[in-house]
Structure formats: C-alpha cells, structure tokens
Design brief:
two-stranded antiparallel sheet; globular
Length: 100
Amino acid sequence: MPGVRTALSAWALAEAGRLDEARQVVEENGRLGFVDMPDDGSLPITRVAWVEAAVLVGDLHACRALFDLLLPYHDIFQVTGGWYAGSDPIRGLARWLWPG
C-alpha cells in the first residue's frame, strides 16, 4: 500500500541518488495509480512525497496517474502538522509532463 512511510522512503532514495531503488518503490506502489493511498491525516504529505519521487525518477506513468489524481485538488493548499506539503505538486507535475 502506498502509504506515507513508503512514499517518504521513495523520495529520500531518489534525493540520495539511489534512483534505481526509488524507481522500483514508485513502480511497485503505483501499480494501481495511487488510488489506494490511505485516506488519513498523512494524505497530503503522502501525495507530495509520491509526486517528488515520481518526478525525480522520471516515471511517466506514475506522474500521469498522480496528476490525474491531484487535479481536482489543484486549488487546495495542503499542510499537515509540522510538515509543509504545499509545494504545488500539480504545477510541478505539469511542468514535467509538458515541458516548454
């Protein structure tokens, strides 16, 4: 299940340059298009972490799935607890999916 711990792990692996490992985590957890993310208090940071990981590893399938999933929330600023998750993931995905 693509929960927050797994999403943050994928993002951390990608940021550390361990792209093959991060790509594998993104692919394994994105098979269902990320629709099975737990709908709990960690959902905003989970979404942003998957976006960051998918973009960093260049997973087009994951980016498209996340874009479609997040588009209805394009005007919502997401913050949870001490985490900042308002990085405008839709804009980042759009820039990556449609450069130029």
